[in-house]
Amino acid sequence: MSSVPDELRYTKDHEWLQVAADGTALVGITDYAQQSLGDIVYVELPKVGAKFAAGATFGVVESVKAASDLYMPVEAEVLEANSTLESMPELVNQVPYGGGWMLKIRLTNPASAGNLLDAAAYKLLI
Amino acid sequence: MTQPSARTPLYDWHGRHGARFVPFGGWEMPVQYTGILEEHRATRTAAGLFDVSHMGEAVVSGPQATDFLDHVCTNRLADLAVGRARYTLLCAPDGGVVDDIIVYRTGPQSYLLCLNAGNTPGDIAWLSGHAKRFDCAFRDASADYAQLALQGPRAVEIATRLAPSTVCLADVPRFSFVEILLSGAPMLASRTGYTGEDGFEFYLRPDQAATFADALLEAGADLGLKPCGLGARDSLRLEAGLPLYGHEISREISPIQAGLGWAVKLDKPGGFIGRDALAAEVAAGPASRVVFFVLDDRRVARADMVVSSAGQPVGKILSGTVSPMLNQPIGSALVKRAALEAKAALTVEVRGAAIPLRLAKPPLHKPA
C-alpha cells in the first residue's frame, strides 16, 4: 500500500510533479518508489541552470543495495535542488511528497504536465 | 521453467513482522523489516535476529568420517575436538572454491556441516560423490533443521534469559557449541556468526522455529532486539570483512587470493582436493588479491565497477554498499598483486568519475 496524492502528476518511472500557477514545479519520487528502493543514502542532483529533455536522466538516487536513475518528467530547466537532501537523504523515504522533494524546475511548456499520468492512472500502474 | 522459490518455516512469521521478501539462492527470504540501516545498527548496538534456515545442512558419520572430511576440506579436521566448530573451504582440483562451510564435530565419528543456501544442491552432489570412497555415511539433512542467528553485544544476555539455570551460555567459547534446551526446544547452540559481533547460531526443529523466534523477540524486547533481513546480513558481513561466496570467493577466486590461507593446511597428511594447485599458488604468489576499502565520497562503488591505477585497469569491485556505522561507502575488490605491491594509488570508476579507493583492514567500521 502506498500513498498517491490526487493533486500530483506522475510518470511511469515513479517520479511525481507538482505544478504551480507560475509555470514552475517541484519534482520528486513517489512513495511506491521509496518503498521499493529501501533506505536511501545519497541523492545526486544537477546544478541550477541545467536543462533536460523530457525523459532524460537528471540524477541518481543511491539506496543501500543499488543506484537508480532519476528521469525528468517534462522538458525543463533546474531552478533549485533540495540541498537538505545532502545531509538528510532519508527525507526521501520519510516524506517523499514533502521534505523529500528533489528539484524545483521551470517547465519549457507548462501545458506538457498534462501529458503525464494522473493519480488514478498511476495507481493502476503500481 | 524456473522452480518457484522455497519458503523457510518462518515465512509466515516474516510476513507478520512486516518483512519485504526477495528471492535468494532459490528461497523467498526477508531482505528487510523496518529498514537495512536500522537493522544493521541494532545488531551492532543491541542485537539482531536472523532467519538463516535457507542454509543447507549435511551429516557425516562412520569410521572414516574424519578422513573423508580431511580429504574434501582445506582446513584440518582431525584435531577438531567434539563440541567445536571450524571454518573451512571445499576446493576443486584447480584450487577454485566449491563452497565455504562450517564443520561441527558432534561426536568422535560424527559431524554436522552448514552449507551456503545457493550452493547446497551442488555441495550435496560434490560431497556425496567423494564420500562413496570412504567408510562413512553422508546425508543431506537440510530438511531436518531450521536455523536462527542471534547476533550483537546483547545477544548472549538475551539467549541466557531462555536457558536453563544449569547452563551458562556466556561460558561457551567462540566456535564451540552445546546441545541445549532453550525455551523448552532442543537445539544446537553454537557461538559463531557472520556479523563480526558476539552471539549464537541455533540449529533446531523446523516446526519449533517460529515459536522460538517469538520467544527470542520477547526476551530481547527491552534490550532492543530487532528482526533483521538479508540486506543487513550482507552489510554486516562486509563491514566485518567476511567473504560471501560468489563475491570474495568463487570457482575463479581461490582462498589464497581471498586472504583465507589460514584455513588452508597445505601440510595435512594425505593432502586434500586442490592442495597441489593451492601450494603452487602460494609458492608463486597469487596474481590478484582481495582487498577491502572505504570511499571518502557519497557515491557507492558496486560489484563489477572497474578499479584502475594510473589510468590502467588493475581490478574490479567484488562487493559494495554503504556502511551504516560509518555512513560511507565500503566494499571489497580483486586487485592485481603488482599494483598492490607497488602501493599504487587506486581509483574506482563510478558513473564516469574516478574515486580514490582507501584500502582498509577489516573491521571497516572500527578505524585502526
Features:
heterodimer, A: 126 residues, alpha+beta, OB fold (Dihydrolipoamide Acetyltransferase, E2P), six-stranded antiparallel beta sheet, three-stranded antiparallel beta sheet, globular, B: 368 residues, Gyrase A, domain 2, Alpha-Beta Plaits, Elongation Factor Tu (Ef-tu), domain 3, 3 domains, seven-stranded antiparallel beta sheet, six-stranded mixed beta sheet, 9 helices, 20 strands, 22% helix
N-to-C order of helices and strands of chain A? EEEHEEEEEHHEH
Q: Residue ranges of chain A: pLDDT <50 for 5 or more in a row?
A: none
From the 3D coordinates, which CATH architecture of the largest domain in chain B would you assign?
2-Layer Sandwich
Strand content of chain B: 25-35%
Radius of gyration of chain B: 21 Å
Q: In the residues of chain A, how many domains can be counted?
A: 1
